[in-house]
Specification:
Elements lengths: L1 H13 L11 E15 L2 E10 L9 H7 L8 H5 L3 E7 L4 H4 L3 H8 L6 E2 L5 E10 L2 H8 L21 H6 L5 H8 L22 H10 L11 H12 L25 E2 L4 H4 L1 H10 L7 H15 L7 H20 L5 H14 L3
Parallel strand pairs: 1-5, 5-6
Antiparallel strand pairs: 1-2, 2-3, 4-5
Helix pairs in contact: 9-10, 12-14, 14-15
Bound molecules: zinc ion.
Amino acid sequence: MKQISEEFTKEQDNMDVFRVNTNKNKVYRHLKFWHDHSDILNRTYFSVMVQCLYDKDLYLTNEEYAEKFPERKSVDVQGLVEKPKMYIFGQSKSKDIDQLSYSKTRADDLQSFETPTISNCKTEIHDILRIFTGDNPARQFEAGHKRGGNYTCLCGIMAKNHMSIDCCFRKQTPSIQERMTILKNGVVWKDFDMETNINPFNELKKEEIETELDTRRIDIDHRKMNKKDLQDLLSETLQGIQRPPALICPSFHSNSYKLVENYEISNCEPLHDITNVVQNLLTELPCHLEPTVVQKEYQNFFEVTIGDKNQIKGSDARLYAVKLAHFTQTKYEDGLVNADLVAICNSLVEIISIC
Ligand SMILES: [Zn+2]
């Protein structure tokens, strides 16, 4: 990680994208992690990428860059700054216990952030681990969240309650610190061990669940509640939390979480989360269109765009949504569809590009 930090600083120096501020001898640079698990030639791999986050206080804007270097080609500074680097690429099975085997190295590497890198103009650049994004299984792993059951979303709302917009608006996704507080409210967390017991809340006996709920000061009716009722009550309390976040696991019992105190695990990843919405729109849209000529044009467009694929991936959905927005814009300019349709398609593209 130290080497990556230095490479970032060197490359950004070479690209002249740093904002030179003689009043500051120390600046902060925020980093984003992303990881995924995938198959290549029948072997499974765990890969982690890291990138800097663009910040106007630290880097020039495109306009400033063009003004400062009028002889150079115009560039997208944010694009240059946010180009990711490969951090870990290693064989790993898809189970949590296998992926956790990389956590110690990852957590140890964070120590290197305590030593800043130095830019050409002698400014200290202090890296801060800021955010994690990835698809749902990756975010659940990073946060120490359950992958199945009724509480699969990091926000802690029961799956069926996601239909309630009111409920979703009110609920604040717990931070890493809040997750740790929820986890450590009882006694079972003490059994967590990275080598031997990564899921201490699994397969608890009835008496153990009772003790856990008692310690959490949750009222239970010992005469009426059976094991399933008690388990449901515990699940509701834990909101899907099952272990410490991946980067905290190695130092869990030391109570020192300083290097991840600014770290936030994104609650959603629009690219994947919105895939089904894009698919639904593609299927439904022609049926809502009149006259038949426009309907036919859309049907042709979908046939050409999607072909015979019956399952679309997140990256496919993004491409289709962008193509659909472009196609709809041209139809709107020809006066064949109304502005609402343009707004629907454009908003999908905007949502997908959030992160
Ligand atoms: Zn949610």
